[in-house]
Design the sequence.
């Protein structure tokens, strides 16, 4: 194999690796945003890639909710004024498509992004 | 040697070309439109890509509202409310649609003679407070008294009528109505023009994955019933996916968890499993069937789940992912749970 052939080969392989790699990186960097809606309107978005724990006080339809992002990629409802406490029972959300719902407060937290290419979460 | 080099170059160029083409395709493809609606005491989330997405989402919501108006335990004027109000008095006229839904429920009840799924268990659920949200642990006597009139044989169905024999008997279609809503939505999606590229419907734990049969690699994450995120995912073609779990709708008393799915043979909340996810094929009434059947699996032991699966696998049940009470995960049928490292 000639030296020039080798160089051409290396260039082509590098280009191929870059194209495939860039797709992979795109998927990895997306995701990890918690979107909080009340009555269909986005009231807050939380960056779940942040290392800082965050506490949010959200006003729902029947009363206040306390939402905590733990600084490790998960978000959960810790307090709510609703009667059945389903939102407080719901396990912390962290995967794209995960939802935490409070029906009485009309509040939905959804994890955005396609980082794992999951189409839907059965929960 | 020359030939090998040419082949190698062609392969590499093809990889680059495919990569560039797929990125270009993604940039030009229609964006998903997501809508969220509150009904049936839960949330309906519709995400449509392609077609008249916003109008499709609205239409699917309207169809779910229609099912709620027909089946609701709480809404006065629903067919369920009319049947319950006439308990002990005689047959009530019902729509062909409602009669057909009752027959689908009865078909699931019959598999196990009402031991693991029963529309008529409603009076016992009410004792536990799941209808009023005033949760309490009833005493054993209350439960055995209520069980006497809370069994499938209380409900007599004909093509045009339904009747509850005991005046205290009640039915609640909460365990099948969401799955049935997905059936109605799928029928609409199959005929709508122009066809959307894909639609994901999540209705309180019941999923409809629709692409007109074009997509064969839907990835469905399975919620970890005791922790954050998912325990893995399964890959499927277009399907209905029904999940029953003990991890959202429950209350705790003296350190014990009581979930909302009542075992019809004991009158106590099911405690054999943490979650059951059942996948059924896209065929008429399979959304309803999977929803109800999921409760049956949820109230069954592992051994019983296997025989139940053998009984229904020829009827459009693709597979199941089960997390039992000890947290052990297993699958039934030709599906595999793919573990995924968390991002």
Sequence:
């Amino acid at each position: 194999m000639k030296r020039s052939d080798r160089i051409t080969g290396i260039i082509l392989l590098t280009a191929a690796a870059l194209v495939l790699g860039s797709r992979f990186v795109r998927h990895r960097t997306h995701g990890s945003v918690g979107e909080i809606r009340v009555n269909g309107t986005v009231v807050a978005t939380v960056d779940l890639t942040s290392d800082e724990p965050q506490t949010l006080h959200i006003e729902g339809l029947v009363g206040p909710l306390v939402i905590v992002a733990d600084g490790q990629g998960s978000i959960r409802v810790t307090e709510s004024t609703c009667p059945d406490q389903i939102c407080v029972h719901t396990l912390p959300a962290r995967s794209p498509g995960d939802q935490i719902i409070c029906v009485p407060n009309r509040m939905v937290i959804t994890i955005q992004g396609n980082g794992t290419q999951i189409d839907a979460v059965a929960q | 040697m020359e030939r090998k080099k040419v082949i190698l170059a062609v392969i590499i160029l093809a990889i680059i070309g495919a990569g560039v083409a797929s990125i270009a395709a993604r940039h030009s493809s229609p964006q998903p439109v997501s809508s969220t609606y509150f009904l049936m005491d839960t949330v309906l989330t519709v995400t449509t890509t392609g077609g008249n997405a916003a109008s499709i989402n609205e239409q699917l919501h309207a169809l779910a509202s229609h099912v709620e108006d027909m089946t609701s335990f709480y809404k006065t004027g629903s067919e369920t409310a009319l049947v319950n109000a006439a308990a002990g008095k005689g047959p009530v006229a019902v729509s062909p649609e409602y009669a057909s839904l009752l027959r689908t429920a009865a078909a699931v009840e019959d598999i196990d003679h009402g031991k693991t799924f029963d529309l008529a268990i409603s009076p016992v659920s009410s004792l536990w407070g799941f209808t009023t949200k005033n949760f309490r642990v009833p005493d054993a006597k209350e439960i055995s008294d209520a069980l006497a009139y809370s069994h499938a044989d209380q409900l007599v169905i004909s093509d045009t009528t339904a009747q509850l024999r005991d005046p205290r008997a009640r039915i609640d279609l909460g365990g099948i109505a969401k799955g049935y809503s997905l059936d109605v939505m799928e029928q609409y999606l199959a005929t709508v023009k122009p066809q959307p590229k894909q639609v994901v419907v999540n209705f309180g734990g019941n999923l409809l994955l629709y692409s007109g049969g074009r997509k064969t690699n839907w990835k469905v994450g399975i919620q970890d019933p005791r922790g954050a995120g998912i325990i893995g995912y399964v890959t499927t073609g277009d399907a209905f996916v029904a999940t029953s779990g003990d991890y959202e709708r429950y209350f705790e008393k003296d350190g014990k968890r009581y979930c909302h799915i009542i075992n019809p043979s004991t009158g106590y909340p099911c405690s054999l499993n943490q979650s059951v996810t059942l996948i059924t094929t896209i065929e008429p009434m399979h959304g309803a069937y999977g929803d109800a059947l999921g409760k049956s699996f949820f109230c069954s032991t592992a051994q019983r789940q296997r025989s139940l699966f053998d009984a229904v696998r020829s009827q459009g049940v693709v597979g199941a992912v089960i997390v039992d009470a000890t947290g052990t995960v297993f699958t039934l049928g030709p599906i595999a749970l793919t573990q995924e490292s968390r991002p």
Chain B has a mean pLDDT of 92. The CA atoms of residues 104 and 287 of chain B lie 10 Å apart. The longest helix of chain B spans residues 2-28.
